[in-house]
Amino acid sequence: MPILELRDITKIFPGVRANDGVSLRLERGEIVALLGENGAGKSTLMNVVYGLMAPDGGEVFVDGAQVHIKTPRDAIALGIGMVHQHFMLVQTLTVTENIILGHEPSRFGVIDLVSARSKVSDLSTRYGLKVDPDERVADLSVGMQQRVEILKALFQGARILILDEPTAVLTPQEVRELFGVVRSLVAEGLSVVLITHKLDEVMGVADRVVVMRDGRVVGETTPAETDQVGLARMMVGRDVVLSVDKAPSKPGETVLEVRDLAVLDDRRLEALRCISLVVRAGEVVGIAGVDGNGQRELVEAIVGLRKPTSGSISLRGKDITHAAPHATIHAGVSHVPEDRQRRGLVLEFDLAENLVLGDQSDAPYASAGIMHGRVIDETARERIADYDVRTPSIRVLAGNLSGGNQQKLVLAREMGRDPDLLVAAQPTRGLDVGAIEFVHRRILAERDSGKAILLVSMELDEIMSLSDRILVMYEGRVAAELSSEEADAERIGYFMTGGSNKDGAPLQKPATTVAEGGAS
Amino acid sequence: MSETHEASVVRENLWMKALRTAGVPLLSVVLAMIIGSIIIKASGMDPLLAWGALLKGAFGSPDKWAAGNFREFGDTIGRATPLAFAGLALAFGFRANLFNIGANGQLLLGSITAAWLGLVLAGLPGVLSIPMILIGSALAGAAWAFIPAILKAKVGAHEVITTMMFSWIGLYLTSWIIAAPLKDAAGNSQTPMLAQSVWLPTFDKILPGLFRTPVNAHLGFVIAVVLAVVVWWVLKRTTLGYGVRAVGFNQWAAQNGGISIAKTTVYALCISGALAGLAGASEVLGTNHRMFDEVSAGSGFGFTGIAVALLAKSHPVAVVFSALLFGALSAGAGMMQLTANVSDRIIMIVQALIIFFVGAETVITWFIKRRQKRALEEKGATDVA
Ligand SMILES: Nc1ncnc2c1ncn2[C@@H]1O[C@H](COP(=O)(O)OP(=O)(O)OP(=O)(O)O)[C@@H](O)[C@H]1O
Ligand SMILES: [Mg+2]
Question: Is residue B317 part of a domain?
Fold first, then answer.
């Protein structure tokens, strides 16, 4: 008997059939991968199961008995836990407080934090989900926050675990750890629904694959029966080229020049130490590195969100070291931020309003302080068609788009602005394979038309296939510069981890010379 | 995608949006009145009689209207006018995620400016002096909000603390001005009566054909309505309004989009102050024709403005209706006490309950959801049967 079964689930939003008669089965101890294009209806389906959305039709069975899940509380009572695409933790509370939130164990009416804390650490050792129960969530990396989400579900007694794109924000190392955890959970009898766009993960961990398109299930298979190309074809309905080929770059004049830049992070510790780099017109410079080695601070300093403590940044020879975002945008810098929901979009704004963000006071979208709705709307329609943002209307609120379509919206805006320099952090986070192919082509087309592109990504494949030069960052410095020919995953990995794991040779010496070579 | 399809989606969204936004405030009012009724009943009075009296006190009766007597209605509008301005002030701040809790201080600065300029400009014809006074009061209100705004923008001092502090300073500053330099020869806690030339004309002066007896409603209300539309337009159609909303919703994304949070904060708080200043001016020029010392009069319109804006969910046009509701409650309270022998304190309880329910939106949403669920279950039951 399947532990979870969905029959003919239908969910209709204004103008969209997000789920159109979807049926799905999950056996005990099974990992089912749910695959599908951006906006196919995967998150919606799981939100229905978790009681966050009421379906317009269909039935849900748990352990063979029909259930009516109206709130997440009902779902939790039935042993269903969910980790969302966009996390739902309270940033100001500690790990333990977040985990017990809504299910506070109490003694004599007082929350029993002591026993809660010990239960949390028990769970975390048992499943290898290492995390400090007393740390504030705001101080945790995304990978850690995700562990908290999983722990929370386990704490609530989940037997069915839904993971909505858990790996989109993780480093390769964290991904390996996560799947280790998932395997040990399954070994203990849990069942998992895994939503992901990464086909290698599907091939690696799933027992069964269910593919959705346009709100319907269009196929079911197992990793044994197919390969990544086959999965991509089922998803998108056409052949997808999973690797891009690019012409050799013809770099022109220097567009971005960063010299001896030092920047502090949010905790006022030195995040960048004297970093120098150059991006020329017509080239893609990729920044590789383990998350938290200064990439974010570098990007924020360039686009004007963070004040450098020393050093300089110039764009086509013009000093923009202390320019605010308003000025860097006008100087020709576009920025795809790593966190689309925090920095990228105003979720309460509609699509047209979001697409004009950054250009809101400039012609042709505004003059003399008055915005020109018609031009804004026309441009919005063009960009949405151009970037294939799946939506019934430009009046839809950005918050109602699927995760991948929110990302496309940010890309449509920042790349559509026709910048001199594109600073793109995790540009394909949350995109389906078809969309990734499209965005990669776009980035290379921009390069070929003479744009300078600084690409920051945790996906080594993405860095290697797009970049003409690769800078590896380690502890706030450029640890190495590699040409696309010299770069392979092993070499990059070597420098990413400080280089000392192989031969123990000191890295600082060669690193600085390489970095300076890059700046000249 | 076809235009018609897009249009229909939009229309659907608009309806749903309207329902969603208006649903909670309307339900809050109803719930507050139900609880008010229970209290009235519990104290041995007749709720229906009480509400009937309140309606009569707030709007009059058909026989009076037929005679061109809109005294009660005019009273409601007169009381709603300062609340509409103050509500707009708070709403504008809320849209930028700013809580101008000290709007009352800016309002008092607007009042004292109007009381002073009204004396100075008494010789000019009204068409000249009145706009000048209004502008002066708006500027005074804005100036009173400017220092808290700068403090917020530069050093992050929270506006709830700073505007409140300035509200107290404003209270005693105006009180002193009224007691000393602008002292009325006859009495103590008021400024001299203004010349008729600077009075905002009442509706019976503007439309003598329709309003055949004197009413309290004055031109200020018309100005407030026009201003509500202007504020709506500014928020919706100008770069400034776009910035205000962007900062209010998500300052991180706004900042990334080149919007200066500091500048937007200063503009928004100063505009809020200007609107509060106008509330004071309209009271002085339209209703009292002088300024009373707030320390003893204690009208506190700036504080009621918080409630008005909350009930309107910070929508500028809804603010007008929200102000009218509060105006009607306060205008009808006297009649309610007189006819039904129900204390006008009941009205204060109802007002407080409305705010409580709007604030406790989750409670209301829960209530609505439960109703829907029950309706669904009933439907399910009949389906089975
Ligand atoms: N709250 C909502 N209001 C209106 N439409 C919505 C809402 N949530 C989702 N949709 C729409 O339903 C469709 C399916 O969205 P869903 O989030 O389920 O996609 P998804 O398969 O998870 O995509 P992604 O891979 O991009 O996360 C999309 O067209 C989306 O715009
Ligand atoms: Mg999704």
Answer: no
